[in-house]
Each structure stands twice: as structure tokens, then as C-alpha cells.
Amino acid sequence: MSDIGFFARRYGPPPREGRPVMVLVHGLGLSGRYFVPLARRLAESGATVVVPDLPGNARSRAAARRAPDVEQLADALARLHQRLSSGPSLFVANSVGCQVAAALAARHPHLVSRLVLVGPALEPRVSGWRQFGRLVADVPGEPFSLLCLAVFDYLVTGLLRCAASFHRSLRDAAESFEVNLSHVRAPTLVVRGAGDTIASGTWTRRVAGLVADGRAEELPGAAHAAHYSAPDAMAALIEKFTVGGTG
Fold this sequence. Notes:
Layout: E1 8-11, E2 21-25, H1 36-43, E3 48-52, H2 70-84, E4 89-94, H3 97-107, E5 112-118, H4 128-138, H5 144-157, H6 159-175, H7 177-182, E6 188-193, H8 201-210, E7 214-219, H9 226-229, H10 231-244
Parallel strand pairs: 2-3, 2-4, 4-5, 5-6, 6-7
Antiparallel strand pairs: 1-3
Helix pairs in contact: 1-10, 2-3
């Protein structure tokens, strides 16, 4: 899919009225490729699953002249949604993608039926250097295949653009992330890999408490990219959440 102005992958049947649509939102500097295992698993249930490379990133690098800020990315997702579905959709986001999803739910609430936030970052009131240190500490807990994928995506996106995106995301974390979360009315599931060094248990529970209708879950044996290392377990959580709500 490229008629929306940036690249997106689709799994499952074509979108149509009455069929669930799920949009998977990647983290800073990456592509949607590390969501592919989860996307394929979710599509097996009959859902339409869309995995974009957000503007300015990876295969959509040329879609933005400079690194977009979080609100611009949220608005780009809103435009994508208008091409996909006449009704609200479920959005699954990882890491800094959670900031984008929160901004989308705050700015365009009618587009979001439910949110799943996996390892939400960046944590407010934590310095950029400390956040970077947490990222480095997470590396040993991730599959080697993910590390190879991430390095390739960072190089395609460009290290300078990644740095600019990091700066914009830090500013959003300091000024807007918690405010946006407090405006989220859609049922929200916040998931943390038990070995995640980036999104602490205290912070993920706070995220679940900030939204109007949230719950927190932890996946054992996974780190920050729990959706990649444990796609079956993540899909089971999402499917249970979509059927049973936050209970």
C-alpha cells in the first residue's frame, strides 16, 4: 500500500465494513518489519492487519523531508485509517510508537476502538542519556534476529534522523505524553515484557492508571519488543482483550 503517501503492509483479508482492522505502530527509527510475526498471527483470526512504516522511517523515509514530531505521526495514522475503515480500529504500538498511539487517541478519539501499548516509552522526567542507557541494557534480552533487523532499519532511516526523532520524542514525553494518556477513553491494555529495561513495571502501571479504562499485563520471558519475541502469547493477550475488555 503506497497511495496514502507512505508505505504500509497488509495481512489478512482486504478491509471492509464489519471486519475488524488492527494497525500496528512501530517504535523510533524502525520499520514495521518487527511486527510481521504478530501481524501474521493476528490475521489468522480473520482480522485485517496493517503495518505501516511511519513517515520519515525506513521505506517511508522519503515521505517526510525532516523527522516528524509525534503529533504529525499521529495525524498521518489518522489519514491511513481514513483509507482503511469506516469505523474505529484497534491500534497496537511499541515503545515510542505508544506516544504516537496516545496522541492519535487523544486527537482523533473516534478512530480508536481499543489500544494495546507494548513497552510504552519514553518515560517522562527521565533524561535522554538515562533512556539511552536503558536501551543499551535491553539489547542482551532481545533475539539476535531483532538486533540485526533494528540495525538495518536505523541505517535506512538514517542516524541523524533517528537522533532528531529521539529529541522530538523526548520533548513529547516531557510535555504531552501523560496529558494525551489522560484523554484516552478507549479501553487500553498495557503490556510489558518481564525483562524490559526501558519501560519499568512502575511506569507501565502508571500508564494503565492514567487512561480512563486500562489494565496492565506482564509477559514472562520477553523484553522490550515482547510482540517480536513472543508473538503467540501477545496475540493471545490481544484476542482475549478484544473479546473480554479490560474487566
